[in-house]
């Protein structure tokens, strides 16, 4: 028996917007994923913050990400929630790993190594779009 768990939209809280993260959320509303890049050591990081987590420099700038990456780890939650959902660590082409939801697919078909791209899902009520990821063409994997 093959399990299938189709993606269903679910409620989630709109993220808090602070002066430090406002450019990130403004870009998300335009369908762009931004990352912070340290001008001192060259490290790219996510979640956006004003100080580089690697060297502590305050010389950081915004960089537009391709939004493409691969699933590094994934977990599907089915119990204790109104609808099933998938959380994954996604390793972006930009070299950072972030945690997000996987959407627009059969949740049971997601595999480590699947190629994904960022999509922006609005919080309930049409509020702040949040970056999530959907698989690219079925079967596209970096590693099998």
Question: What does this entry look like structurally?
Answer:
The chain has 144 residues and is mostly beta strands. The chain has two domains: 19-64, no CATH class; 66-144, Beta Barrel (OB fold (Dihydrolipoamide Acetyltransferase, E2P)). It contains one helix and eight strands, in the order H-E-E-E-E-E-E-E-E. The chain has one helix at 22-29; strands at 34-38, 44-45, 60-64, 68-77, 85-92, 97-102, 115-123, 127-135. The strands form two sheets. Strands 6-5-4-7-8 form a five-stranded antiparallel beta sheet, covered by helices on one side. The radius of gyration is 16 Å and the shape is globular. 22% of the residues are buried.
What's the architecture of the largest domain, going by CATH? Beta Barrel
Q: What's the CATH topology name of the largest domain?
A: OB fold (Dihydrolipoamide Acetyltransferase, E2P)
Give the terminus-to-terminus CA distance: 22 Å
Mean pLDDT, to the nearest integer, reads: 92
The amount of helix comes to: under 10%
- How much strand? 35-45%
Number of domains: 2
């Amino acid at each position: 028996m093959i399990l299938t768990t189709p993606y269903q939209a679910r409620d989630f809280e709109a993220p808090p917007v602070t002066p430090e993260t406002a450019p990130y959320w403004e870009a998300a509303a335009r369908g762009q994923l931004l990352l912070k890049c340290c001008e001192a050591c060259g490290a790219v990081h996510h979640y956006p913050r004003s100080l580089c987590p690697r060297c502590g420099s305050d010389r950081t700038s915004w960089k537009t990400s391709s939004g493409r990456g691969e699933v590094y780890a994934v977990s599907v939650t089915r119990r204790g929630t109104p609808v099933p959902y998938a959380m994954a660590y996604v390793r972006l082409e930009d070299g950072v790993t972030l945690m997000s939801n996987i959407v627009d697919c059969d949740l049971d078909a997601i595999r480590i190594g699947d190629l994904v791209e960022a999509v922006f899902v609005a919080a309930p009520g049409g509020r702040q779009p949040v970056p999530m990821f959907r698989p690219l063409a079925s079967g596209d994997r970096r590693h099998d």
